[in-house]
Design a protein that fits this description.
CATH superfamily: Uncharacterised protein PF14869 family, DUF4488
Distance between the termini: 18 Å
Oligomer: single chain
Radius of gyration: 16 Å
Structural class: mainly beta
Strand order of the largest sheet: 1-3-4-5-6-7-8-9
CATH class: Mainly Beta
Number of helices: 2
Length: 146
């Protein structure tokens, strides 16, 4: 289902979405699953125009200490490479079938203050988001949480 107006799309996006798949397709056509075949994640859009996205690699190793400040450099590097997340606001451009995530804060500081364009396709309870990246494109599928 592709809604005709920005308001229709915005209404359809509102709520919580569970991550189904995340695929990166390189410029040479190489396909990888950054967090494996069964990543975990949550995407939330609220009525006030806020967005929050969190993606993780499942079954990560625990740190040796329960105090995050005691983490080793190796533990920190492993955790950093197993998480992707940001928050901010969003707007819909129905004409170009895009939702724009206006990033206010992110795990990757280079995203802060940027507009991240996600081309969308709504298919029943599934939301397909496609984003161009410096290395190719990301294709992420989410499923609406009842």
């Amino acid at each position: 289902m592709i809604a005709a107006t920005a308001d229709d799309v915005r209404s359809a996006l509102l709520g919580t979405w569970k991550l189904v798949t995340w695929v990166e397709i390189g410029l040479d056509g190489t396909v990888i699953h950054p967090f494996g075949p069964d990543p975990e994640g949550q995407l939330m859009y609220d009525a006030s125009g806020r967005v929050s996205a969190h993606l993780t690699r499942p079954q990560q190793d625990s740190f040796a200490s329960d105090d995050r400040r005691q983490a080793s450099k190796e533990e920190m590097a492993a955790a950093w490479s197993s998480y992707f997340g940001y928050f901010g606001t969003f707007r819909v451009d129905a004409g170009s079938q895009a939702v724009v995530h206006e990033i206010q804060g992110s795990w990757f500081p280079n995203l802060d203050g940027t507009d991240q364009v996600r081309r969308y396709r709504l298919d029943g309870k599934r939301l397909h988001l496609h984003a161009d990246t410096p290395g190719g494109r990301d294709e992420i599928v989410w499923e609406k949480v009842p």
